[in-house]
Amino acid sequence: MPNIENGGGDQPQANQQRVLICGAGIAGLTLAWWLDRDGWDVTLIEKAAGLREEGYMIDFLGSGYDVAKRMGILPRLKEVEYPIAEIIDVDSNGNTVSTIDYELFRRLKDGELLSLMRGDLERVLYESLSDDVEIRYGLTVDEVGQNGREVTVDLTDGTKEQVDLLVGADGIHSRVRELTFGEEEKYRRYLGYQTAAYIFEDDAFRRKLDGGFRDITVENRTAGFYPIRDGKVATWFAHDAPDEKLPAAPCDELRRTFGDIGWIVPDALDHCSDGDSIYYDQVAQIEMDHWSRGRVTLVGDACYAVSLLAGQGASMAMGGAYVLARKLREASVIEEGLAEYEAKMKPEIEKKQAYGRRTASFLIPPTKWHVKMRDAVLNLSQLPGLYWLLRPVVAGTDSVISTK
After folding, report:
1. What DSSP designation does 288 have?
2. Of 171, 196, 243, 310, which is the most exposed, with the fewest CB atoms less than 10 Å away?
3. Which residues of 156-183 are buried (b: 16+ CB within 10 A; e: fewer)?
């Protein structure tokens, strides 16, 4: 099979191996890109009706940045990035309490850091695929069976696929993982927080942001607001939640939890609408002893969600997809490649998951004292020569693909 990293571009071999990837998000699209160029016959299925909307802002760095560079899509990503200059943390009266010069983070990452809306990254990956990759929206996996080297997959539209490899790239609530390894509760590590994000249009609200990223943090709660393209405003909320059960009405829960904070938060909550327009979920990690069973494997949040607190979900999705494709390319049989993929990625993932747990109290301070200490550190880091104080915030973001 051709090695795309070294300019390989051979035509697919006659005896193509078939792969079905469940989940056309960041991990699935990245994996499809690499396997297609390695000569696989690739089919993607996605339960959503189509590409998702903007989502929420992500820091794109480390493994994701390195993979995007290898794929040649960095120029396009730079066209859709948001050049955040600073993040201003305010109090309940809108007064500044701390400021983060985002250039300091870029300096710590040698300039290899982009601020992207998750949906924009997904769209760029989608547009980078060749016409040979088939994507079928509006369906998922209903049943999985294995017979020797063949995987039989029943889909929810009543069709059946027979493939050499099935990959679950379908997120933290993976259907492929459930069918192959068992119930989600066996693998989910709840971290004690819940999070939400939604987008709305309000010109008056947008003007109050003065073109910048504004954040308000009080004990056990944080909320952020920032203007995005097309006159829209994006939101982000996170709060402690000892009971991991998700609320039946997410917007009511947000109003109950954040409604007393003041500033412009109540105005933002007035725009909250339950349904497909809001993202609301647990902050959790997935921990598994093994990611593969026979010729069924998992990638991305389906097997190694690092959590929102680690801030690397998209980057690790791309990094893991790249490593999986490379190990399959190098292996003589599929099962060998799956074992090598896990051996390479699992130790790195465990480090990043631990990093995410350690940073929880910094991102969502549990007491007023923690809030004040966080503000003090952020303000000190802005002084000449003290930007190194931010190193713990990016300490777990190194790439996993620079070496074998």
Report:
1. -
2. 243
3. eeeeeeebbbbbbbbbbbbbbbbbbbee
| DSSP per-residue string spanning 79-106 | HH-----EEEEE-TTS-EEEEEEHHHHH
Domain parsing of the chain, residue ranges: 4-52+112-188+286-360
Residue 19 CA to residue 273 CA, distance in Å, equals 38
Give me the CATH topology for the region 4-52+112-188+286-360.
Answer: FAD/NAD(P)-binding domain (3.50.50)
CB 399, CB 63: distance < 8 Å? yes
Are 25 and 316 in contact by the 8 Å Cβ rule? The answer is: no
Close Cβ partners of 320 (under 8 Å, ≥ 6 residues apart): 27, 63, 299, 300, 304, 341, 345, 349, 400
pLDDT in tens, 100-138: 777 777 777 777 888 899 999 999 999 999 999 999 999
